[in-house]
Design brief:
The complex is a heterodimer of chains A (325) and B (418). By secondary structure, chain A is mainly alpha-helical. Chain A has 16 helices and no strands. Chain A has a domain of 188 residues: MetI-like fold (Orthogonal Bundle), CATH 1.10.3720. Classes of the chains: A mainly alpha (325), B alpha/beta (418).
């Protein structure tokens, strides 16, 4: 949800001239101004209605769900007692909380680190504009084009302990097979690998477009000064790409925090809690068994929203700073 | 802000939005007015069979039963996992369907939510339905629907694999006999058995025959009997009698493993019968053995046809007519044959057997089976089940011993149902 809000570039635009600075003073100015204001409000109304119906109200409902003790019965008749932060306390004290927090942080952090460095390496590589480079670059976009259910299912087949292609390759080169999806040590690694693969194209595309904005004469000047490729990257590309990198990483963070489908399809958060993140936990509580547990599920969901919001505000700040420069 | 609006382009965009907004509201009001039903008119029917489209025999049967009751029935098929939340939301908005076909462990949840009528309100007769099947829909002495059919679990075996290992399936009547058979099969290079140990309700469903077969009770997960059941499966995985993939297997993926022809046994359901016949596999079926000998009680699967609460209680009369039409002996036989289920009444079972004699082991198995929410567990079952499948995952993956895993599960389950 937060992504949609923060992706609007108009939002942080500095406020325009003072609203009252209308056309030059004429006798009818007051009347005119009121009509104009009314028209303005009429135009803004659909947007406001849209925001209220599709953002504010659901958000309010989610907060309300997490502050009341909903059972299936009170969900129907709407008489759930207000319990304050009890659901949050329960969630914090739940034995799943620790592992879920650790898994969420690991999943997000490691995914971003690898996605970004692979994306950067590939962007720089393809920026050389050799023959076939655009074809190859297009191929790298494939993970992005596939529906998540297709790529996640394919990964889970490939990582199958007994009949997966990855294990048969490992076996072929003489290694011991790994229970990718079914051992507590490897399950999280397995879903991170799949998520990195899916996230690389996003990083590649954004960083590549960032590279195109770096003026070529800087590189020329550096070449004249005798800079080697390594120096060019660290002293020109990397610093000049900083603004784009910051945005890529922040968007990636918000995006990766809420990843659900890949993990659910590949491991269902298991074995046990080994690959349960907040997103998975929230779903398990709300829809995982035949008896929904809406209130704690909403509490976990709200925690996710808060974490995503923090990154969202960070993104807005970075963007505003860049706009000022 | 106003200076912003002065920009022509922004204006155009806003007008566009306004138009879009108007269209949206237009749509919304359209659907809501269509929702209000005429006195007789259309009766809604929800089921978890999205695989049947409008031209299927099932849809035609449902529509025909509506016509016989003098109304039109509009059937919608939802994904099973989706149907519970759909039904709850509909109940909250006061627009529940007139008839709702749901998976039996969900009945207690929906009854607890107060959105189902019990059979005394609708004057539905359940006298002919087998007691053990009906029990899954009974809470505190009230019955909340009629089963449309039943299925359960048994062991399918591959004759070729068993012959190669010199195993006689008729001797497998206890856990020890089964384990030594698995050992012999593994020695020939095949895998012994495959099942589903996934971390969802499916995993619990498949674990229950072993759990109940040990003599354990769901209210005490960590009893020594319970631990012996989990140890049995854990040992199979550790010794390689069962593949490691069982931890992540759904019943469908474990069935696909069995169909490769490299497995001795597969714990699977009645619904696979139609598929195994066309697979070309030389198969047989035995009951799941209990610890000390004899058949273990397996859990019943299958859906219940319920009548959700309506504002206009006069509608129950018509709904009941449709319900009893769909649960007549003739329609039981045709529906349960299509679904590859066992009918829940003795009369319909006999007709099924007359037409299809290989259903015999399944009729016996359904007779021995037990509802998951039975014993008046009701909505306590889902909470216990969740801890049970977690314990199974922890034990099979080696992160905990069976005893420790079940102990942790019992603590969590006891706290949850308190």
């Amino acid at each position: 949800m937060s992504t949609t809000i923060i992706e609007r570039p108009e939002a942080p635009v500095p406020a325009g001239g003072p609203a009252t600075a209308g056309p030059p003073a004429r006798p009818t100015v007051k009347k005119r101004f009121r009509a104009e204001q009314l028209t303005a409000w009429a135009f803004i109304l659909p947007v406001v209605a849209y925001l209220v119906i599709f953002y504010a109200y659901p958000l309010y409902r989610n907060v309300d769900l997490s502050l009341r003790d909903y059972t299936v019965r009170s969900f129907i008749d709407g008489n759930a007692p207000f319990v304050g932060f009890q659901n949050f306390v329960d969630v914090f004290q739940d034995p799943t909380f620790g592992p879920a927090l650790r898994n969420t942080l690991l999943f997000t952090g490691v995914s971003i680190a690898f996605q970004f460095s692979f994306g950067m390496a590939l962007a720089v590589f393809f920026f050389q504009n050799f023959r076939l480079s655009s074809t190859l670059r297009a191929l790298f976009l494939v993970p992005w084009l596939l529906p998540l259910i297709v790529s996640a299912s394919t990964w889970s087949w490939m990582m199958n302990s007994d009949s997966g292609v990855i294990n048969s390759v490992i076996h072929g080169i003489g290694g011991a097979p790994v229970n990718w999806l079914t051992s507590p040590q490897w399950a999280l690694v397995a879903v991170i690998i799949a998520n990195v693969w899916i996230g690389i194209p996003f990083n590649l595309v954004i960083l590549y477009s960032g590279l195109q904005n770096i003026p070529g004469d800087i590189y020329e000047a550096a070449a004249l000064d005798g800079a080697n490729a390594w120096q060019k990257f660290w002293r020109i590309t990397f610093p000049l790409l900083k603004p784009v990198s910051a945005i890529t990483i922040l968007l990636g963070l918000v995006y990766t925090l809420k990843v659900f489908d890949i993990i659910w399809i590949m491991t269902k958060g298991g074995p046990g809690n080994a690959s349960t993140t907040f997103a998975i936990w929230s779903y398990q509580l709300g829809f995982g068994s035949t008896l929904p547990n809406f209130s704690p599920a909403a509490a976990v969901g709200n925690l996710l929203i808060v974490i995503a919001l923090i990154f969202g505000f960070l993104y807005l700040r970075v963007q505003r700073k860049q706009a000022q420069q | 802000m106003i200076s912003f609006f002065r920009r022509k382009r922004a204006l155009a965009a806003l007008v566009g939005l306004a138009v879009a907004g108007a269209t949206l509201t237009g749509c919304a009001s359209g659907t809501s007015s269509a929702g209000g039903a005429a006195p007789k008119g259309t009766y809604t029917f929800w089921d978890p069979y999205p695989q049947f489209d409008a031209s299927s025999a099932w849809t035609k049967l449902v529509e025909k039963c509506g016509t016989e009751a003098g109304v039109t029935v509009k059937r919608t098929g939802y994904d099973t996992s989706d149907l519970t939340s759909k039904a709850l939301l509909a109940g909250q908005q006061n627009n529940s369907p007139d008839l709702l076909l749901v998976d039996n462990p969900v009945v207690s949840t929906l009854a607890d939510a107060g959105i189902l009528t019990d059979t005394s309100e609708t004057k539905t007769s359940t006298a002919s339905v087998e007691k053990n099947i009906l029990a899954a829909g009974q809470i505190d002495g009230k019955t909340y629907g009629v089963p449309i059919g039943a299925n359960t679990l048994a062991l399918y075996y591959n004759k070729k694999v068993l012959d190669a290992a010199g195993v006689d399936p008729s001797t497998i009547t206890s856990w020890d006999a089964l384990t030594s058979a698995l050992e012999k099969i593994s020695a020939t290079g095949n895998k012994g058995i495959t099942f589903s140990g996934i971390g969802t309700e499916e995993g619990s469903f498949q674990f229950l025959p072993w759990f109940w077969g040990s003599g354990a009770d769901l209210t005490k997960l960590d009893s020594s009997d319970g631990v012996s059941a989990l140890s049995l499966l854990t040992d199979w995985v550790n010794k390689g009698y069962a593949p490691n993939s069982v931890i992540n297997n759904t019943q469908t993926t474990s069935w696909q493993e069995f169909l490769t022809g490299k497995f001795g046994f597969s714990e699977n359901g009645t619904w696979q019968l139609a598929g195994v016949k066309t697979s070309g596999l030389d198969y047989g079926i035995i009951s799941i053995p209990s610890k000390s000998g004899g058949a273990a009680p397996a859990p019943t699967g299958g859906e219940f046809l319920t009548i959700p609460v309506q504002k206009d209680t006069a509608r129950y009369q018509v709904s009941e007519k449709i319900q009893s039409c769909l649960t007549s002996t003739k329609n039981y036989v045709s529906t349960d044959t299509t679904l590859s289920y066992v009918a829940p009444t003795a009369a319909a079972q006999q007709q099924q057997l007359a037409a299809q004699s290989d259903l015999k082991p399944w009729v016996t198995a359904v007779g021995d089976a037990k509802g998951r929410t039975s014993d008046n567990l009701g909505t306590k079952y889902p909470k216990i089940s969740e801890q049970m499948w977690k314990a199974e995952q922890n034990a099979l993956s080696g992160s905990q011993t069976p005893a420790a895993a079940l102990q942790q599960a019992q603590t969590a389950a006891a706290a949850a149902i308190k």
